[in-house]
């Protein structure tokens, strides 16, 4: 018999396999079996056309009689008449007419679902969902019973591969594949009340009643969570298998100097995080910790103390940032905080300190060479940079700690690249940070190979930020007042961000046509010419040269008394990551509905970081967006917003290199909805590894893990 890894070509033939690979991206039997039905059609719920009433939501089995495109006062429509052999029903389509004509030829039979209406005395379904029966052989309704069981799975379909073809292939694969070797052992199945794999897949793809489908899907959802947690557990084991150098620090060293120089008291969360990290660093196994929390919760200071502890122990630390702007800001902030302790070996330096270097892609060759030499010699205890740090030419004397800022901007492989820079077989400690609020279950799934520390408290002295929604479509005067408020803030010596969803010089060219969202280029010019003509307006976006972005941020952060300072910065979301300007007290987000809820929360975290209270205005011209934006205005808890956001924007690629910004790579599992399942799977995996740490007695699970690793990591 075939196995799960068997190619579809061996079971279905080359032609059918190629068609399914093109349409559904499936190559193996396992790939196809994990293409789950979008819904099920219960044949017992079919309605005779003669029994239909207006406003009924019904499904009918019928044959196409005619399909005609007609001209109307508003354009064209497709009118289709179907019959069940006794009565007729009209279907109306108003877009995609040619495509529907091709899919609805007279004589073909299908299932048609929708809400019943009345038009010109005829019962009608407007743009119904439909599934057509095979064209081969007879088209009599009675002959459909081979295709239509009591419960019929309706699969994702394309124009070339309708659901019935997927169904036929699925039946062939189910009959051919040996599923007796279950990746979930009997002990786990009994504990969780789960079906065996073979039974579960048959319940999903060939159900006899709807309760079977629920039981089958429950098993496969748990299986997905279990396999993911197994992969993450194996990553943890692999990382801890390599030794690390214990970094215990030194009394009176650089870390203590930093604490002494603080002008404020650490929050309890910061103190707990520092204690946990120091415990990890002092162990001979590599730390793998995620530090995440609200914007402005003080993660960078915690990371700096960790780096200082490693330096005090004779090692080096690296801080990897996703952008040159953020790397430059980290460098400026850390060197300013350390002062003479960032100049060890120099005339004005303190021997208890170290040197701090910056490495970015835009540096000139001389500056870059100097930084590389200091890193290689060990003279620089702290290196800060961008992806340039990942270059093979960067050699470390004794790399002890890798800190990755804004982890969601880096992939698994990028993170791993630096961890291979340890001396010989010694692995550096790892601390990753993100200001993106992550619910616990998301952290367990996406960052399951890391220990998690959360910072929720904000440092003392922060005034906080108030958020309001401005509906420009309902009250134009509110928009006028919005810009007046900007001028008032500037007159008090404060700074203001204006955020736009796009740049505005896309292919159509320099905003020559009106768009649904505003771009920074036109907005900055328009504001400087009119509403904000009395203040100094600057511009920043991702396609500007690095030097120009750095200069824009320098001018925006400069005191208002400086001659070349900027009062207002019109920018894209490039400023969401790490840009810290304490004088910034106000932010306006234009067309705010274009951003995710968590992104809006992160953006508003850029203001209210000083003593002045922050104000964030979410401006929209779309009345329908108001309710969603009010969710941001109604809470300051980023974790609550993240849960809401995840339900609509999905989890991203949880195992691969792209961990955000794309559709979920998960098949059935949803990390917010299935919180309990994830926790159960995590506990069961821990128990399994106690019994069989090498998975020697669980060959099917090991084989599945290997296949999933290949699919999600190597191919992503």
Oligomeric state of the chains present here: single chain
Strand content: 15-25%
Do you know the CATH architecture of the largest domain? Answer: 3-Layer(aba) Sandwich
Q: Count every beta strand, where a strand is a DSSP E run of 2 or more residues.
A: 21
Q: Uncertain regions: pLDDT < 50 for 5+ in a row?
A: 507-514, 657-664
Largest sheet: 7 strands, parallel
CATH superfamily of the largest domain: P-loop containing nucleotide triphosphate hydrolases
**Overall helicity:** 25-40%
How far apart lie the N and C ends?
A: 31 Å
Mean pLDDT: 85
- CATH topology-level fold name of the largest domain: Rossmann fold
Number of helices: 23
Number of domains: 5
Output the CATH class name of the largest domain.
Alpha Beta
Query: Structural class, judged by helices and strands?
Result: alpha/beta
Q: Over all CA atoms, what is the radius of gyration?
A: 30 Å
The geometry reads as globular
Strands ordered across the widest β-sheet: 11-12-10-13-14-9-15
Note the topology.
Layout: H1 8-12, H2 14-24, H3 29-33, E1 39-42, E2 57-72, E3 75-83, E4 88-93, H4 97-103, E5 109-119, E6 122-126, E7 129-132, E8 151-154, H5 163-176, H6 186-192, H7 197-205, H8 210-241, H9 254-261, H10 268-281, E9 288-293, H11 299-312, E10 316-320, H12 324-338, E11 355-359, H13 365-377, E12 380-385, E13 399-404, H14 412-419, E14 429-434, H15 440-446, E15 451-455, E16 465-471, H16 476-491, E17 495-499, H17 520-529, E18 537-540, H18 546-557, E19 568-571, E20 584-589, H19 597-604, E21 614-620, H20 626-633, H21 638-649, H22 675-691, H23 699-714
Parallel strand pairs: 4-6, 9-14, 9-15, 10-12, 10-13, 11-12, 13-14, 16-21, 17-19, 17-20, 18-19, 20-21
Antiparallel strand pairs: 1-8, 2-3, 2-5, 3-4, 5-6, 5-7
Helix pairs in contact: 7-8, 8-22, 8-23, 9-11, 10-11, 19-20, 19-21
């Amino acid at each position: 018999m075939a196995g799960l890894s068997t190619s579809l070509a061996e079971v279905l033939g080359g032609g059918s396999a190629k068609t399914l690979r093109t349409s559904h991206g499936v190559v193996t039997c396992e790939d196809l079996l994990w293409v789950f039905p979008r819904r099920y059609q219960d044949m017992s719920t079919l309605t005779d056309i003669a029994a239909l009433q207006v406003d009924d939501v019904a499904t009918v089995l019928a044959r196409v009689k005619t399909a005609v495109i007609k001209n109307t006062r508003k354009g064209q429509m497709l009118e289709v008449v179907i019959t069940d052999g006794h009565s007729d029903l009209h279907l109306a389509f108003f877009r995609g007419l040619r495509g529907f004509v091709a899919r609805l030829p007279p004589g073909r039979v299908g299932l048609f679902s929708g809400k019943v209406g009345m038009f010109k005395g005829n019962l009608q379904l407007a743009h119904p969902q439909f599934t057509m029966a095979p064209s081969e052989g007879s088209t009599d309704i009675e002959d459909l019973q081979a295709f239509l069981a009591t419960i019929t799975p309706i699969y994702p379909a394309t124009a070339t591969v309708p659901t019935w073809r997927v169904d036929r292939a699925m039946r062939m694969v189910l009959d051919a594949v040996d599923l007796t070797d279950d990746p979930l052992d009997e002990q786990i199945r009994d504990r969780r009340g789960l079906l065996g794999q073979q039974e579960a897949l048959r319940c999903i793809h060939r159900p006899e009643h709807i309760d079977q489908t629920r039981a089958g899907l429950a098993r496969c959802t748990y299986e997905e969570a279990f396999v993911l947690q197994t992969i993450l557990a194996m990553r943890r084991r692999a990382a801890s298998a390599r030794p690390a150098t214990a970094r215990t620090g030194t009394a009176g060293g650089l870390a203590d100097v930093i604490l002494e120089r603080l002008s404020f008291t650490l929050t309890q969360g910061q103190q707990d995080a520092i204690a946990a990290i120091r415990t990890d660093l002092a162990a001979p196994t590599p730390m793998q910790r995620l530090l995440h929390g609200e914007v402005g919760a003080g993660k960078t200071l915690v990371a700096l103390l960790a780096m200082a502890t490693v330096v005090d122990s004779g090692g080096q630390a690296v801080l990897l940032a996703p952008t040159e702007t953020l790397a430059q800001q980290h460098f400026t902030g850390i060197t300013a905080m350390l002062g003479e302790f960032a100049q060890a070996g120099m005339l004005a330096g303190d021997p208890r300190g170290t040197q701090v270097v910056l490495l970015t892609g835009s540096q000139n060759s001389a500056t870059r060479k100097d930084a590389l030499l200091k890193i290689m010699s060990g003279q620089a205890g702290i290196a800060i940079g961008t992806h340039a740090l990942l270059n093979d030419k960067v050699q470390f004397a004794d790399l002890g700690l890798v800190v990755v800022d804004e982890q969601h901007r880096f992939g698994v492989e990028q993170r791993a690249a630096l961890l291979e820079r340890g001396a010989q077989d010694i692995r550096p400690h790892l601390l990753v940070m993100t200001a993106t609020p992550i619910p616990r279950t998301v952290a367990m799934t996406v960052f399951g190979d890391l220990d998690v520390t959360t910072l929720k408290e904000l440092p003392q002295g922060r005034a906080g930020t108030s958020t309001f929604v401005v509906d420009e479509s309902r009250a134009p005067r509110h928009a006028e007042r919005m810009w007046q408020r900007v001028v008032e803030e500037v007159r008090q010596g404060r700074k203001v961000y204006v955020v736009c969803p796009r740049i505005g010089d896309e292919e159509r060219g320099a905003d020559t046509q009106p768009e649904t969202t505003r771009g920074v280029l036109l907005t900055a010019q328009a504001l400087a010419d009119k509403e904000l003509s009395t203040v100094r307006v600057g511009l920043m976006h991702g396609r500007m040269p690095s030097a120009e972005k750095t200069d824009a941020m320098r001018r925006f952060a400069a005191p208002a008394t400086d001659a070349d300072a900027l009062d207002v910065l019109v920018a894209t979301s490039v400023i969401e990551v790490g840009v810290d300007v304490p004088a910034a007290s106000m932010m306006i987000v234009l067309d705010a509905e274009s951003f995710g809820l968590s992104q809006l929360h992160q953006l508003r975290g850029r203001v209210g970081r000083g003593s002045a209270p922050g104000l964030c205005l979410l401006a929209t011209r779309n009345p329908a967006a108001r309710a969603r934006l009010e969710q941001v205005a109604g809470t300051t808890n980023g974790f609550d917003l993240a849960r809401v956001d995840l339900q609509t924007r999905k989890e991203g690629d949880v195992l691969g290199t792209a961990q955000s910004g794309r559709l979920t790579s998960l098949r059935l599992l949803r990390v917010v909805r299935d919180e309990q399942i994830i926790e159960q799977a995590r506990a069961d995996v821990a128990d399994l590894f106690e019994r069989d740490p090498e998975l020697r007695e669980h060959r099917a699970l090991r084989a599945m893990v290997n296949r999933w690793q290949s699919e999600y990591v190597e191919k992503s």
